[in-house]
C-alpha cells in the first residue's frame, strides 16, 4: 500500500474501520537532523572559541592592572 512519499501504516479507529495514514521515511528525517547537528556543533565550537578569547583578554587586562599597582 504505497501512497506518495513515505509508507502507509494501518491502524483501527474506534468503530473498527481500518485507517491508512502516511508516515514519513526515516532517512529524510535523519538527513535533516545531521544538517542541524552540524550547524549546532559549529555554533557551539564558535561560542567556546569566543569564550576562550574573552577569558584570555580578561586575564591580560587583570595582569596589566596588577602590574600598574607595583
Major sheet size, sense and barrel closure:
2 strands, antiparallel
Shape: rod-shaped
Strand content: 15-25%
Distance between the termini: 83 Å
> From the helix content, strand content and strand pairing, which structural class follows?
alpha+beta
Radius of gyration: 28 Å
Question: What order do the strands of the largest sheet run in, or round the barrel if closed?
Answer: 1-2
Number of helices: 1
Please provide the count of β strands: 2
Poorly predicted runs:
none
Q: What is the residue-mean pLDDT, rounded to a whole number?
A: 77
What pattern of helices and strands is seen along the backbone? EEH
Count of discrete domains: 1
What portion of residues is helical?
55-70%
Task: Identify the notable features of this structure and list them briefly.
alpha+beta, 1 helix, two-stranded antiparallel ribbon, 70 residues
Protein model, in words:
The protein is an alpha+beta fold and 70 residues long. It has one domain (7-68). The chain is built from 1 helix and 2 strands. The protein has one helix at residues 26-68, and strands at residues 7-12, 18-23. Strands 1-2 form a two-stranded antiparallel ribbon. The longest helix is centred in the last third of the chain and has 43 residues, at 26-68. The radius of gyration is 28 Å and the shape is rod-shaped. The model has no long low-confidence stretch (mean pLDDT 77).
